[in-house]
Specification:
By secondary structure, the protein is mainly α. It contains three helices and two strands.
Length: about 90
């Protein structure tokens, strides 16, 4: 988080958040998907810089993977969270 010329705190928005452009959530329908609540958590991870920080930490010189490692790790962690059941 940085400050923008005294205008208050601003968040650096990653290019990784482009996947969610135009996305909206609604709770007014029938037969809602039970796991839809994980989407705001993923967006939060992107917006606060967690995904970018993980991507940077997992970089290797002279290796360019097809998928961003930080994004994959965040997605895998959220998939795990969705699958956990009280036990």
């Amino acid at each position: 988080m940085s400050t923008n010329m005294g205008e208050g705190p601003t968040l650096r928005v990653s290019k990784l958040t482009e996947w969610a452009d135009g996305l909206s959530l609604s709770a007014g329908g029938r037969k809602l998907v039970g796991k839809a609540g994980i989407v705001p958590v993923r967006r939060l991870a992107d917006k606060v810089g967690l995904t970018d920080a993980l991507s940077t930490a997992l970089e290797r010189r002279d290796f360019h993977p097809v998928h961003d490692r930080g994004g994959v790790l965040v997605s895998a962690a959220l998939a795990y969270v969705m699958s956990v059941r009280d036990g």
